[in-house]
Every structure is written in structure tokens, then in C-alpha cells.
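pinging the channel bc i need a second pair of eyes. not urgent but kinda urgent?? the chain im working w is below, pasted from the shared doc
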Amino acid sequence: MAEKQQESPECEIPNGRGKQYFCGGCAGMVNIMVTFPVQKVLFRQQLYGLNTTEAIRQLQRDGLRTLYRGLLPPLLQKTTSMAIMFGFSNDMSRMLSRPGSSPGLLTSSMTAVLAGTMEASLTPFERIQTLLQDQRHHVQFKNTFHTFRTLVRENGVSELYRGLVPILLRNGPSSVLFLGLRGPIRNSLPQAETYAGQLASDFISGGLLGATLGFLYYPLNVLKARKQSKVGGDFESSLKVMRTIWTERGGKLSHLYRGVHLNYHRSLLSWGITNAAYEILMKVM
């Protein structure tokens, strides 16, 4: 009798929704590893209203050993959020679309908003990142897990979600614009005939769009940084905190946007890397 030969199951990344989640998560990971030091300079500018030179000098005084302090929260947050943004939005678009048809504008927008709202569930990662990057808390909080335990033990779980409102206001609309416009922007670029040309087109389309969105939503990131740098006490409204920031910075829009030029270049690099890495992985997987 001929024996049936059973093939051993292979571990592979499935096509479809699993592929989008995996590629999105990997793209987010690459992005954070490359851009984290720039993000740290930018954070100091958002929190203290420093210019670029002063923020860099502040980091130099802190020492090289603290440069990557706080890396784990954004690494986990961005890896997960990019997996959600690309994977969940793709899944929901398929579910809400009619069989055999492409998702319409309304469907795509709704799924992008849902994906952005889901990303807000990762607020504790941004919260912990803020505290670990703030030099005022270097002694109080040792690392990611110590910060998490301390916040929950001393102030309750709600303390992890301080700054949730500006994150919600930022994530939904920015996800709609990024997912909706990255394709048309790429298609408006000259047709790429080589692999390097395609990579450049993906980087440019993602980078320019991400940098523009980073500029538009910059005040929300300033607000988030201020709210999340506080530990304990009342949860002040976003409007009240923004009024305080506006007053402290002399009521000048240019001071509120201090650090925006660095944020623009960081976003250009960050979203360019994310978009290009995602498209590369989608093609090779």
C-alpha cells in the first residue's frame, strides 16, 4: 500500500489581511529605529518651547547613555499602530464594500477613522514615552515597566490615558488623509521604470504627505506633550491647557509652532520610510 505523505506545515505570512498587518508593523518598527533621536530633540522643543540648538544641547548634557531612553514604548506603539492602520483599514474596507467592487470614498474614510480611533487605545505607550523623554522624570521613572507600574499603583489606570483627547483629534483625520491621498500623490509622480525609481516614488509620496499632516496637526502634538508630562492631579481640559501654553509663549503662533521645521523634516523621513518599507514588504512577501 502506498503510504500517504503528509507535508509538514510551513510557517509563512499569509496573503490577505495577515500580510497587511505584518508589513505595516515591520514598516513602523524600521521607522522608529531610524528616527528616534530626531523625535527626542523635537519632543524637548514641543514641551519646553526651545529652539533646535538649545534642545540638542539639553540632550548633550543628559549624556549619550540616555539618548535612546524611552525607545521601547514608541517601538511597541508605532509597530502596533501601523499594523492597525494598514491591516484593520484594509479588513474593514473589504467588509463594508460590495462583493467584487472597490471601496468607495465614504467607505475608505470611515474605515480610516475607525483605524485611527483604534490606534488611540495605544495611548499608554505615548504616555510612558513622554515621561521617559522628559529630563524632569529621569530619577522618578527608571524604564518602561517601572513607569507603567508606578503610574497605575499611585494614580490608577486612568493616568495612563492622560492626553487621550488630542490623540483622538489627531489620529482619525490624519489616517483618513494619509490612506486616502498616498495613492493619488504617488500616481501623480513620473512613471517609475526601475526598482529604485519605484522606491523613490513610494518614499516621496509618503514623506511629503506625512510632513504636511505633521505640520497641520503640530499644535495637537504640543498639547499632548504638555498634558502627558504631568503626573497626578486634576485632568485639565484640552482647551484650558492650550490657553496656558498660548499665554506662556507670548500669544504668538510662531512660538506655538516652535520646532515645526524639525518636525517637518522628521515626518518627511519617518513617513517616507514607513510608506516605502510597507510597499517593499508587500511586494516581496
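so Residues 21 and 83 are 4 Å apart (CA to CA). and Residues 1-14 have pLDDT under 50 and may be disordered. — does that match what u expected or am i reading it wrong
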